[in-house]
Amino acid sequence: MCDIAVTTTSQQAEATDFESRLVRALNESGLLLLTSIGHRTGLLEALAGQSPLTSPALAERSGLQERYVREWLGGMVAAEVVETDPESASYWLPDERAELLTDRGPVNLAVYAQFIPLLGSVEDDVVRCFHEGGGVPYSRYPRFQEVMASDSGQTVLPALFDAILPLAPGLIERLESGIRVLDCACGRGRALLAMAERFPSSRFVGYDLCEEAIGWAREQAERTGLTNLSFEVRDLSDFDVTATPGAFELVTTFDGIHDQAQPRRLLAGIHRTLVADGVYLVQDIHASSHHHLDRQHPLGAMLYAVSLSHCMTVSLAQGGEGLGTMWGRERALAYLEEAGFHDIRVHQLEHDIQNDYFVCRP
User: Fold this and answer.
1) Which CDD domains has this protein been placed in (predicted)?
2) How far apart are CA 204 and CA 227, in angstroms?
3) Are residues 136 and 165 both part of a single domain?
4) 204: closest CA among 172, 179, 223?
């Protein structure tokens, strides 16, 4: 009886803890929605570094409707993000929080809050896929490239020249001398735009399936006067046979493999298009290929949600493999070796808890 009583008490305590956790999660999800709205409307930026403002003053400063601004402020006060003085009916965003929620700090975490409403908008489609199979097409995510470009702007671009490219010894010198570079699944091409400006002697090409992303990249290249790069809308699902052999000294993918329709074919094509002493530099999600080993991942649940609601399902929508965001280091190494890469070095960077960096040579 004693053992039964102890077990029952333990189970009740665990149930209570779990209930509390779910309630907290529910409340924090509200914070993320409010944060995304604050980011997209400019309210967070408008509050940052300012003296306390009333709701009408903030609405006027932001060019927004006061009633909506007032309700948003109420939510952010309840979430203990924005502070308020009830006597003056004024509000302010403390500097230490503004550093994390605006572009005033090194990382703007409000950018990532956008994933919650973005992925939630396709929940009905994903539920349908649970019953019927298939996937959710790329066309159902009109803002995904925009949000990913913001993400890349905080993980890739600040570290590109000082930390990421130097992972391959001698690569910076080769880029300065002039080599041919391909970025597969380039999205809006922000990494290529940065490299093309930094290394004018090298030539850069970006491929992506999304016409909107490629159009944006081309406009930026034209606006900045860069003539050493080009962008092309291209389906990479048959890259293993359509890639030009020995065409590039460097190929890069930045979080670009796991949502491909045919990742194995893309990797084989990358191997095919590299010269004999070329380098393939890969950024992809830091995870394990085994579910039980992801329990301690600081972003594990979030990244599985991203996979289920975007990366895995867009691949399945193309009749693809549906590899998913959390394919993991073990599977990544197996795929790279299968593609023909034998010299593979894996790195992690201190600023980026989300990704692994693979330096691969044929």
Assistant:
1) AdoMet_MTases
2) 9
3) yes
4) 179
Look up the CATH number of the domain holding residue 258: 3.40.50.150
Nearest to 64 by CA among 83, 85, 87, 43: 43
pLDDT, block means (10 residues), the chain with 362 residues: 64 91 96 98 96 97 98 98 97 97 93 95 98 95 86 88 97 98 96 97 96 95 96 96 98 95 97 98 96 93 95 96 96 98 95 93 95
Query: Within this chain, do residues 86 and 178 fall inside the same structural domain, yes or no?
Result: no
The CATH number assigned to the domain holding 7 equals 1.10.10.10
SS3 of residue 178 by DSSP:
coil
- Do 100 and 127 sit in the same domain of this protein? no
Q: Are 119 and 125 in contact (CB under 8 A)?
A: no
- The residue with tokens 């700090």 is 105
Is there a domain that residue 22 lies in? Answer: yes
Domain-terminating residue out of 77, 104, 131: 104
What pLDDT score does 203 carry?
98
Distances (CA, A) of 27 to 30, 75, 317: 5, 10, 33
